[in-house]
Write a structure and sequence with these properties.
single chain, alpha+beta, 3 strands
Length: 91
């Protein structure tokens, strides 16, 4: 996983309901819907941990091997970058 410390753009409007998130990007006009797994990863993107550390934290919290969640975390971060949901220093 990249060693950057991903951080969600502060100008996004994020609403969570029942473990899922809807994100509105006022700059682009795009609306995004995240499933519960992606919502959890997004919530942890505060610029304090790398993708590998996020995977380790999630694995520890759920009592599963890190390898089991690492792929999901990588995929979520890749999607966030592609959708421009992360601050430029978190790419």
């Amino acid at each position: 996983m990249p060693s950057s410390k991903p951080r969600v753009r502060p100008d996004l409007t994020i609403v969570e309901l029942d473990g899922e998130a809807v994100i509105y990007d006022e700059v682009s006009g795009d609306l995004h819907h995240l499933n519960p797994t992606a919502t959890l990863v997004l919530r942890l993107c505060d610029g304090t941990a790398t993708g590998s550390q996020l995977a380790a934290d999630i694995a520890e919290a759920f009592g599963v091997p890190r390898e089991r969640v690492a792929g999901d975390v990588r995929a979520a971060l890749r999607s966030f970058r592609t959708s421009k949901l992360l601050a430029s220093n978190g790419s």
